[in-house]
């Protein structure tokens, strides 16, 4: 009996040890998966080189007698939870400010973030989409949104020629955050580039002192 018990206990401990190791491995794999999921939601590194856009914009401003101090580049190809509204300084050759900006909801529900990664693009009436192309920022007006200030946008390309008729303007919106919200998106409107209230205060000061600024909306 003593011999049998001596044999049983090592076997029992061996089984229990194997079972514990198995559970530990499962827990380790589960923890590893959770870490992978967390890592996947980290803010992506935006490695897009906009140098050619800056050069083309500067030449366009010279040719068309537009503001040669600043211009605005909006890249709708970036996730809407990232800052993708860039104020570029021609003289310093650098981005001086960047902000979150909304895009049009298209076929999706207004105020949601359904197309935060792939916005629909259209120049058609009632499409509720944003339009790509070059715009000239014109008169300062009164808005029903945000800080009650907007700027008229004149589309200069075939892809955004209906901007004024569609009442596409630059304005602020309480739903837009001051800081990046990735992996969440920025709420979507009916096609206007809308920024946060605090962002609009800064942009307003810029546009009050810099007239006929080029705004170029792209989708990289």
Structural write-up:
33% of the residues are buried. The protein has three helices and eight strands. It is globular and about 40 Å long. It is α+β, with helices and mostly antiparallel strands and 220 residues long. Strands 3-2-1-8-4-5-6-7 form an eight-stranded mixed β-sheet, sandwiched between helices. It has helices at 2-40, 51-63, 197-209, and strands at 70-75, 85-89, 94-99, 133-142, 149-155, 169-172, 194-195, 213-218.
Distance between the termini: 79 Å
Helix proportion: 25-40%
CA-based shape:
globular
Radius of gyration from the alpha-carbon trace, in angstroms? 26 Å
What is the SS-derived class?
Answer: alpha+beta
Strand content: 15-25%
Question: How does the SSE layout of this entry go?
Answer:
Blueprint: H1 2-40, H2 51-63, E1 70-75, E2 85-89, E3 94-99, E4 133-142, E5 149-155, E6 169-172, E7 194-195, H3 197-209, E8 213-218
Parallel strand pairs: 1-8, 6-7
Antiparallel strand pairs: 1-2, 2-3, 4-5, 4-8, 5-6
